[in-house]
Design brief:
By secondary structure, the protein is α+β, with helices and mostly antiparallel strands. The chain has two domains: 26 residues; 128 residues, Sandwich (Immunoglobulin-like), CATH 2.60.40. The protein has one helix and nine strands; from the N terminus they run αβββββββββ. The strands form two sheets. Strands 3-9-8-5-6 form a five-stranded mixed sheet, with no helix packed on it.
Length: 184
């Protein structure tokens, strides 16, 4: 009987691992525990119960086409309003996509517009000056990213000015995940 080379054994093991992972994810999704629990027809529906918020509420939605590292325009971060009154502003960020996202709030300087920040080699922009973020799944503030079909939130005291809301996970800013908010 001929034995397989070490390289062939590794290749077969890798293929088996990928197949097992794919079958496991399919089984979890069919049983209602995956990104779309219970077979819900609304991909934007969230499994989180958000608290009552102080001040003006801005509903932010993150979307993608299911593939990280997409070209500009393949992902989106949108807000249900472009202007709010200064003071307490609560952001409810719903992830209607299929991969994790987050939302940071950073002031825009002078005539700077949303989507023009320089992107570093790591696929992210400088977060200096960030006033806060919603990146925790089903919770307030910072975390490891808002999982699909869930939400995160943050409440900030915003003075008048212009702000950029954006996702700063690797490659997401370049893929189009930003919008502008004016505080009067």
């Amino acid at each position: 009987m001929k034995t397989l080379s070490r390289g062939m054994q590794i290749l077969i093991g890798a293929i088996a691992t990928v197949l097992l992972a794919a079958l496991s994810m399919a089984g979890i999704t069919l049983l209602g525990g995956g990104p779309n629990p219970g077979g819900a027809r609304n991909p934007g529906a969230t499994r989180c119960a958000a608290p009552s918020f102080a001040g003006t509420v801005v509903n932010v939605t993150t979307t993608d086409r299911g593939r990280p590292g997409m070209m500009r325009g393949g992902m989106r971060l949108s807000a249900d309003r472009a202007t709010v009154v200064h003071g307490k502003v609560s952001f409810l960020v719903t992830n209607a996509g299929s991969i994790p996202h987050e939302m940071l709030v950073v002031p825009l300087a002078g005539t700077q517009s949303a989507g023009t920040r320089p992107v570093g080699r790591d696929g992210r922009v400088d977060e200096a000056g960030s006033l806060g973020e919603a990146s925790a799944t089903c919770a307030d503030g910072e975390g490891e990213g808002i999982l699909p079909s869930t939400a995160g939130w943050v409440t900030l005291d915003l003075p008048p000015g212009r702000y950029e809301l954006f996702c700063n996970l690797q490659g997401h800013y370049l893929a189009g995940m930003y919008t502008e908010l004016t505080v009067t």
